[in-house]
Each structure stands twice: as structure tokens, then as C-alpha cells.
Design brief:
alpha+beta, SH3 type barrels, 2 domains, 5-stranded antiparallel sheet, two-stranded antiparallel sheet, AH/BAR_dom_sf, lipid binding, 11499_t:CDS:1, SH3_domain, BIN3/RVS161-like
Length: 335
């Protein structure tokens, strides 16, 4: 914005420079029309002020980027990492609940077979691993989240204070240099910008419209519009005559249209994507969503499997009741 403002000032200076256009005197020579001295002086001062503002404020803006914008971006990155850790803790909680329910189910059996005993030993090992994983992330968040909240307060307050003082300095620099333009007395700072522009434009509008060049342009536009109107009337007349003639060739036209439609339908069928296929599966356990993106389901619900991996202990993607989300892969039984 500062560069645009400085460039705009330089363009104004080019416009206000004296030009060789003018009015003819009685002896036929060209008299040069000079730009008013006050206007030329003011626009030169405006150029100097805009360039000075740009060269003074740009280094301050670089300080804002280094002291405010970059630290804030780093802080947002830390927040995203914490959010991912919370999501991972929630997933570990689901794994822990699943293994705990499986172990409890076998332990509650009154009579256990040899297969149950072997399966119980395996499930207890999985439960122990899931418990350690969940406790690790849960204890980590319980320990470090309070510290993060404290650091957040200590971080935000200095950032706001730094940003406030830098804004104050920049506005002060701009006000100090803009006062030099106001002191020239050339600018009307009391009236509205649009109203002031309209008042000055009224004085010059009549002179611009009286220029021979603009008058010739208006006549050319009028002649062009007249020619366009005549062409439109001719086209309408031709269209009316064409519609009044007998349509002896309607049958070939219909055949041609049918052929085009058939060709378009053929091309459309070639461009059609392959149909969506999602294998149905039955859920063997129930689960409640604990994080964004998790599916809530009950045992024996039928779910559409959208994406899966080779590992059944991984999280798969499915669709249930119109909702797409993730769920444990070992919670399903393929049909």
C-alpha cells in the first residue's frame, strides 16, 4: 500500500508538469499554459511526503513481522501439535476400553475352555499395552497442559503490548508527515472527500464537454448506435421471413439432431466414473465417539467399509447412517 501511494504521487507529479498544449494567440503562435505555482508546489510536496512515509514505515513493518507475526505463527503451530496429542489420547482411550471389555467378558465366564484361557492370556497382554499407551498420553496432557495455559498468558500479553506500541509509532510517523501537507493550506480537510471532489468537478465538467475532440467522439458513438439499431431491424426481418417459410427439411433435421444426441450420450457414458462400491460389514462391538471424526455405533450395526488397511488393529474409514468417520478395524466382521 505504501508503494502504491508513492507511485500514485509520482503519477500526479507527471500530470501536473507543464505541457505544450495551449490556446492560439492572435498572431497564430502557441501560448504555453502553465500549471498554477501553488498546485505544482503542493504536488511536489505530496511526492516527497509519500516517499518519506514509505521509506520510514517499511522498516517498522518488518519489525512487526519479526516480533508479532512470526511468534504468533509459532504459537499456533504448538496449539495444533497439542490438539493432535489430545486426539491421539482419545483414540488410545477407545483401544483401552475395547480390550478391557474383551478381557472382562472372558473372565466373567463360569466355565472356561482351553481356547478361552489362551485367548484370555493374549487379550490381557493387549490390555496391558493399551493401558500403558493411554496412561502415557493422559499423564502427559495432565502434566503439561496447565504449564501451556500459563505460558499462553505470558506470551499473549507482551505480544499485544508490542503490537500496540508499534501501531502507535507508525501512526505517529504518518501524522507528523501528513501535517506538512495540511500546513500548505491547499487541501480542504474539513469537508467530505467525495463532496469536495464533486464540487471541483462541476467547474471543469462543462469545459471538458465543450472540447472538440469529445464532441466528435459523441457523434461517432451516436452514429455507431444508429447503425447497430438498423442492423438489428434487418436481422429481425430476416428471422421473421425464415420462420414464415415451410419447413420441408424438418425430417433430415430431426435425424441429424437424434444423431448428435446419441453421440453426446455415447461420449457422456465414456466419461462416467466407475460406480462407487463400499463393502458392507457387521460391527461386533459398540463404541461412542470421543473425538472429531470418530463414528458412534452399536453392536450388530451394518456399516459400509470405505477404506481399510491390512492391519486389523488400525483405524478404518466407514459410513454409517450417512456419516463418514473412523472406527477400530477389529470391531467389524466382513460379510
Amino acid at each position: 500500500m505504501l508503494n502504491y501511494q508513492a507511485n500514485f504521487a509520482e503519477i500526479l507529479e507527471e500530470i501536473y508538469k507543464p505541457v505544450n498544449g495551449g490556446t492560439a494567440s492572435e498572431v497564430g503562435t502557441i501560448r504555453r499554459v502553465q500549471t498554477p505555482v501553488q498546485s505544482m508546489k503542493t504536488v511536489s510536496e505530496f511526492v516527497a511526503v509519500m516517499v518519506e512515509i514509505r521509506d520510514t514505515i517499511l522498516p517498522e513493518l518488518e519489525l512487526i513481522d519479526r516480533r508479532v507475526v512470526q511468534p504468533t505463527s509459532d504459537f499456533i503451530t504448538i496449539i495444533k501439535l497439542i490438539s493432535k496429542t489430545i486426539t491421539k489420547r482419545d483414540h488410545k482411550r477407545i483401544d483401552y476400553d475395547r480390550h478391557r471389555v474383551s478381557v472382562k467378558k472372558i473372565r466373567d465366564k463360569r466355565e472356561k475352555s482351553l481356547s478361552d484361557e489362551k485367548n484370555l492370556y493374549k487379550l490381557e497382554e493387549q490390555l496391558d499395552t493399551a493401558t500403558k499407551d493411554y496412561d502415557y498420553y493422559n499423564d502427559l496432557l495432565k502434566k503439561e497442559l496447565p504449564q501451556f495455559f500459563e505460558y499462553r498468558t505470558q506470551f499473549i500479553e507482551p505480544i499485544f503490548e508490542e503490537f500496540y506500541h508499534m501501531q502507535l509509532k507508525i501512526y505517529g510517523l504518518m501524522l507528523e508527515r501528513m501535517d506538512r501537507l495540511v500546513a500548505t493550506g491547499y487541501f480542504d480537510v474539513n469537508s467530505n472527500v467525495i463532496d469536495g471532489f464533486d464540487e471541483r468537478r462541476v467547474d471543469i465538467q462543462g469545459k471538458l464537454e465543450a472540447l472538440t475532440l469529445l464532441g466528435r467522439r459523441a457523434k461517432l458513438e451516436e452514429r455507431r448506435n444508429s447503425n447497430n439499431s438498423a442492423d438489428t431491424q434487418i436481422e429481425q426481418s430476416r428471422s421473421a421471413n425464415s420462420n414464415s417459410r415451410p419447413t420441408s427439411s424438418s425430417k433430415p433435421t430431426r435425424i441429424s439432431t437424434d444423431a448428435v444426441d446419441e453421440l453426446e450420450e455415447y461420449n457422456h457414458e465414456d466419461d462416467m466414473p466407475p460406480p462407487y462400491t463400499a463393502s458392507p460389514t457387521n460391527l461386533t462391538n459398540s463404541s461412542t465417539s470421543r473425538a472429531d471424526g470418530d463414528l458412534t455405533f452399536r453392536k450388530d450395526d451394518r456399516i459400509q467399509l470405505i477404506e481399510r488397511t491390512e492391519d486389523k488393529n488400525d483405524w478404518w474409514t466407514g459410513k454409517l447412517n450417512g456419516v463418514v468417520g473412523v472406527f477400530p478395524g477389529n470391531y467389524v466382521e466382513e460379510l
